[in-house]
Amino acid sequence: MDNKKFCTCDNTECVNNPCNQSEGCNACVATNLECNAIPRCFFHKLGFKSDEINTWTFEEFSMKVTEKSLKDKGLA
Predict the structure, then answer these.
(1) Which of 2, 5, 68, 76 has the greatest number of CB atoms lying within 10 Å of its CB?
(2) How buried is 11 (Cβ within 10 angstroms: 0-12 exposed, 13-18 middle, 19+ buried)?
(3) 56: left (phi over 0), alpha (psi -120 to 50) or beta
(4) At residue 1, does pLDDT exceed 60?
(5) What are the pLDDT digits (tens) for 25-62?
(6) What is the Rg, in whole angstroms, of the alpha carbon atoms belonging to the chain?
(7) pLDDT value of position 44
(8) Total domain count, the chain
(9) What is the pTM of this model?
(10) Three-state DSSP class for residue 71
């Protein structure tokens, strides 16, 4: 799989971005786990843009999942 094609991260300056190294997603996921953070691609999968995210934390991801679910159901 072409890592660059798969990755939705818009932070191409990050050393862990697949376009900057050959480990694919591993470096990104490992770094995020060390920081108790969620990779950008998870937020992007929900339809959020990077500038709509403040902390990249598990808590914020949980809130965004709830926000998307309510919006999809027409409740928000």
Answers:
(1) 68
(2) exposed
(3) left
(4) no
(5) 999 999 999 999 999 999 999 999 999 999 999 999 99
(6) 13
(7) 95
(8) 1
(9) 0.85
(10) helix
d(CA 11, CA 30): 16
User: Which residue reads 């709509």 in tokens?
Assistant: 52
Q: Which domain holds residue 42?
A: 3-72
Where residue 37 falls (left for φ over 0; alpha for ψ -120 to 50; beta otherwise) is beta
The answer to whether 11 touches 29, Cβ cutoff 8 Å, is no
Stated as kind and residue range, the H or E segment containing 72 is helix 58-72
* Residue keyed to tokens 């660059």: 4
What's the length of the chain?
Answer: 76
The larger pLDDT score, comparing residue 14 to residue 6, is at: 14
